[in-house]
Amino acid sequence: MSLAEIPAWVFVVEPYAGESLSHFLGRFRRANYSTVNELGEKSGLGAVLGRWEKFRFNPFPTQPQLEALAAVVRVDADRLQSMLPPQGVGMKHEPIRLCATCYMEEPYHRLEWQFKTTRGCDRHQLRLLSECPQCGARFKIPALWAEGICQRCSLSFAEMAKLQKPL
Ligand SMILES: [Zn+2]
Ligand SMILES: [Zn+2]
Q1: Within a domain: residue 32?
Q2: How does DSSP assign 93-129, residue by residue?
Q3: pTM over 0.85
Q4: What's the mean pLDDT when you consider all of the chain?
Q5: Residues whose CB is under 5 A from ligand 1 (ion)?
Q6: What pLDDT was estimated at residue 19?
Q7: pLDDT digits (tens, 9 = 90+) for 127-139
Q8: In a domain, 163, yes or no
Q9: Is 115 inside a domain boundary?
Q10: Which of 25, 83, 104, 119 is most buried by a 10 A CB count?
């Protein structure tokens, strides 16, 4: 798709420091009233985008793919690249993990929470949550974190902070 075909109404969403691609894409889609299928279609990436939202980066995103996405979301391919795991760092697809204390400070999913090597939050010296501490439900993929609450019992992610355990 050429740049000229991309509609002018794109609402640009600025990535946060350390934000995961999944969370960023969710914010972009909601800001632009767009579905993952529409975004896949516009960028020419198709179903690959849905896999990326689930942290499935195998095969790893290529530069042309990142540039195709960059043209649609209007964020540099380099910045999109920074929302992907560094080379050689394995990703946990599930469970989706959360430092509720980080989320309380700034409400978004950090990429590093899904690294296989991440044992907890270094900033707060707390263990990451991999399920709701009140009802035990798993977290949805970050692309679907519109409200920042447990999908089953509605406890807010920020309130979960007081239930986090030390490292
Ligand atoms: Zn934290
Ligand atoms: Zn819950």
Answers
A1: yes
A2: -SS--B-HHHHHHS-S-BGGGGBTT--SBTTTTBPPB
A3: yes
A4: 94
A5: 99, 101-102, 121, 123-124
A6: 98
A7: 999 999 999 999 9
A8: no
A9: no
A10: 25
Rounded to 5 degrees, what are φ and ψ at 110?
A: -90, 135
Measuring CA to CA, how many Å separate 67 from each of 75, 148, 154?
9, 30, 37
What number of CA atoms fall less than 13 Å from residue 87's CA on the CB side? 1
Distance CA 137, CA 130 (A): 9
Reply yes or no on whether the pLDDT at 88 is more than 70. Answer: yes
Q: Residue 44 C-alpha to ligand 2 middle, in angstroms?
A: 37
In which domain, by residue range, is 15 found? 11-81
Domain total in the chain: 1
- Identify the CATH number of the domain in which residue 17 sits: 1.10.260.40
Q: How many angstroms does the Cα of residue 118 sit away from the middle of ligand 2? A: 23
The two three-digit tokens of residue 160, written as one number: 């979960």
Judged by DSSP in three states, 11 sits in coil
Q: Residue 18: what residue type?
A: G
Check pLDDT > 80 for residue 8: no
State the Cα–Cα distance between residues 90 and 102, nearest whole angstrom. Answer: 22
- Residue 73 inside a domain? The answer is yes
Q: How far apart are CA 17 and CA 50, in angstroms?
A: 22
